[in-house]
Amino acid sequence: MAILEKAPAKINLSLDVLRKRDDGYHDVEMIMTSIDLADRIELEQLEEDRIEISLESRYVPNDERNLAYKAAQLFKKKYGIKKGVHIHIDKSIPVSAGLGGGSADAAGVLRGLNRLWSLEISLDELAELGSTIGADVAFCVYGNTAIARGYGEKIEQLPSPPPCWVVLAKPDIGVSTRTIFGQIDIGKLFHPDTTAILDALKEKNFSKLCSNVGNSLEEITFGLHPEVLRIKEAMVQAGATGVLMSGSGPTVYGLVEQQSKATRIFNGMRGFCEEVYLVRLLG
Ligand code: ATP
Hints:
Bound molecules: adenosine-5'-triphosphate
Number of helices: 10
Strand content: 25-35%
Number of strands: 11
Helix content: 25-40%
Structural class: alpha+beta
């Protein structure tokens, strides 16, 4: 019997880089929320003790480099499972886009294997395990809306944003998170008003949320890839309100309350950029 898991992408309502640590990582503070753009993961037990991955993607490896493979390997080792698993990933989340697709898949595999092998491990324990694979995996284990601290592994759940639509536009480039973090000059960074976003979520205040979304990494990515800035400008011009680059980019999103307006902006952006999505917030 196959187990199915939905692995939703995330967007950053905020991303603040606080400091560089002695171990080379950066301490961050990020408010993230899940969106209804998801990979589908199918897990099937193999009697032989091995991990197989199948997926159709030019950009994602189907071997031990895949984060879903790493998650299964870690899970099997930690809980001493001697059986194998076939993991099929039906990929819808764009790759290297700032939407946490690889982390979503790793988190989906951890939740799915927990069900496949009936282990009843808590989400807290899965998140702790997942954070050793990548900074966004802990958030993706829970999904919904949360603030992540530390290097991303410390998660605190938050109230969900007011219901709205999300228009996403991704230029035809991939951005490496490592490259962007490598360019950080801490003294020159912009810092978003995280407290104002937390208040907006508590108050379910859409316009306050939109006017405070912010990302420390935008300027760095804009400097390396000016087309990302142009997409942000086009999205603002088209009438979206909370417009921001997600993660280290290059995807830019806009939040819109009314469906008719969201559809208009979505159609407008399609004339400007190849990959455009219109989805709802899940968080
Ligand atoms: P990050 O901020 O972690 O870079 P991202 O959303 O910008 O996240 P991902 O789509 O997660 O980017 O992909 C980043 C890299 O991870 C790519 O080089 C990709 O080949 C690799 N990768 C490994 N496994 C996966 C997976 N299951 N799905 C997507 N990418 C994966």
